[in-house]
Amino acid sequence: MTSDLTRKADSIKLFSLATPQMRAFHLAWLAFFACFFAWFACAPLMPVIKGEFGLTAAQIANINIAAVAITIVVRMIIGPMCDRYGPRKAHTALLIFGSIPVFGVAASQSYESFLFFRMLIGAIGASFVITQYHTSVMFGPRVVGTANAATAGWGNAGGGVTQATMPLILAAILMLGVSETMGWRLALIVPGVLMIVVGALYWKFTQDCPQGNYAELRKAGIELEGGKKGGWESFKLAAANYRVWLLFITYGACFGVELFIHNVAATYYVDQFDMSLKQAGLAAGSFGLLALFARALGGIVSDKMALRGSLNARVTLLFILMLGEGAGLIWFAKADTATVAIFAMLSFGMCVHMACGATYALVPFIDKRALGGVTGIIGAGGNVGAVAAGFLMKGVGSTQQTLSILGFLVLISAACAIALRFSAATNEEHALARAAA
């Protein structure tokens, strides 16, 4: 870690909380973990909720679409808001206010009210954008890919943990003699409480950037990196950059698929292979738990390749990972036994998570003047991909066929990664900045 605490960190001291950079690192992934845990807490309980409300396949599809749709808008807004108000205020507000619909969904008494609160819960998925923004302003070019990927990956693991633990929490509540109708509602209170606790920690122990908080720095007349005007200016700058939209597509093809799998995996294993709710939860949870290391691995490999080569080495890695993801998805769709399906899921899951990490290892180098806008638009691409997959499944009527079609679409979208290639001048500028760090 750099000795000057007012500069971006050029290394990651994983077991330290002594610096603002490392406090932001650990609380960023913890906040995203809490949000991701709450975001998908309903998914592993859907077989129970489905029975209580008598949900049809079309209604379940609507719920899955609602869970990720609103995040598209919120992610695009929250990125520029980080530029304007700082990641500390943005993340704390999202955690505290985002807990309200989590409690609301637990109190739902009908399909309509459940759908409404499930849609509002989707807003907390914007936590990802703040997480990536915060580590991007705290860490230098030598390790920013690793920092972004590790925090996002460990946060994403909340999706795997919730798949595995929510059925266990429900089982523990039922053992106390609580009815199943009340049990799943009580289980959903757990992630809401977790969000409030983490929100309080984030406000108390983090700051916006190595120099301090944006509000105080602006009052002192200190110019922030890239100007950091935020708001509409940040969004316009980002939206004018074609590379932002290429990564919007590639992120939709990797993170969008990840979200889709989180929503359908448990039910797919129950319906396709006659697994019990606990078995399906553990199988589906293993996909999410890959995020503990696979997304970080994508960032680490991207950083290492860039040190030996150029920014285009990061581009090549993303292209290769997306090809692996597409092929693995098709294999998963055609698996005829639970064992083969789980193995195929873990194989393409590695590529999915690593591709997400490789994507956000590129994000800090797209346009430093509008980091929030870039981060938000590309992050929204993941949710667009998930919503598109949801509508695809609703139209096709079969999860298995949807998975197969998605595999081919991912293979096609890999071409966007190659189109990202940077010019020689940009690569030279990046090399000079890396040497000076």
Automatic annotation (TrEMBL):
<feature type="transmembrane region" description="Helical">
    <location>
        <begin position="154"/>
        <end position="176"/>
    </location>
</feature>
<feature type="transmembrane region" description="Helical">
    <location>
        <begin position="313"/>
        <end position="333"/>
    </location>
</feature>
<dbReference type="InterPro" id="IPR011701">
    <property type="entry name" value="MFS"/>
</dbReference>
<keyword id="KW-0534">Nitrate assimilation</keyword>
<feature type="transmembrane region" description="Helical">
    <location>
        <begin position="244"/>
        <end position="270"/>
    </location>
</feature>
<feature type="transmembrane region" description="Helical">
    <location>
        <begin position="182"/>
        <end position="203"/>
    </location>
</feature>
<keyword id="KW-0812">Transmembrane</keyword>
<keyword id="KW-0472">Membrane</keyword>
<feature type="transmembrane region" description="Helical">
    <location>
        <begin position="339"/>
        <end position="363"/>
    </location>
</feature>
<feature type="transmembrane region" description="Helical">
    <location>
        <begin position="90"/>
        <end position="108"/>
    </location>
</feature>
<feature type="transmembrane region" description="Helical">
    <location>
        <begin position="55"/>
        <end position="78"/>
    </location>
</feature>
<dbReference type="GO" id="GO:0015112">
    <property type="term" value="F:nitrate transmembrane transporter activity"/>
</dbReference>
<feature type="transmembrane region" description="Helical">
    <location>
        <begin position="27"/>
        <end position="49"/>
    </location>
</feature>
<dbReference type="GO" id="GO:0016020">
    <property type="term" value="C:membrane"/>
</dbReference>
<dbReference type="Pfam" id="PF07690">
    <property type="entry name" value="MFS_1"/>
</dbReference>
<dbReference type="GO" id="GO:0042128">
    <property type="term" value="P:nitrate assimilation"/>
</dbReference>
<dbReference type="InterPro" id="IPR044772">
    <property type="entry name" value="NO3_transporter"/>
</dbReference>
<feature type="transmembrane region" description="Helical">
    <location>
        <begin position="114"/>
        <end position="133"/>
    </location>
</feature>
<feature type="transmembrane region" description="Helical">
    <location>
        <begin position="370"/>
        <end position="393"/>
    </location>
</feature>
<dbReference type="InterPro" id="IPR036259">
    <property type="entry name" value="MFS_trans_sf"/>
</dbReference>
<comment type="similarity">
    <text>Belongs to the major facilitator superfamily. Nitrate/nitrite porter (TC 2.A.1.8) family.</text>
</comment>
<keyword id="KW-1133">Transmembrane helix</keyword>
<dbReference type="InterPro" id="IPR020846">
    <property type="entry name" value="MFS_dom"/>
</dbReference>
<protein>
    <submittedName>
        <fullName>MFS transporter</fullName>
    </submittedName>
</protein>
<feature type="domain" description="Major facilitator superfamily (MFS) profile">
    <location>
        <begin position="24"/>
        <end position="425"/>
    </location>
</feature>
<feature type="transmembrane region" description="Helical">
    <location>
        <begin position="282"/>
        <end position="301"/>
    </location>
</feature>
<feature type="transmembrane region" description="Helical">
    <location>
        <begin position="405"/>
        <end position="424"/>
    </location>
</feature>
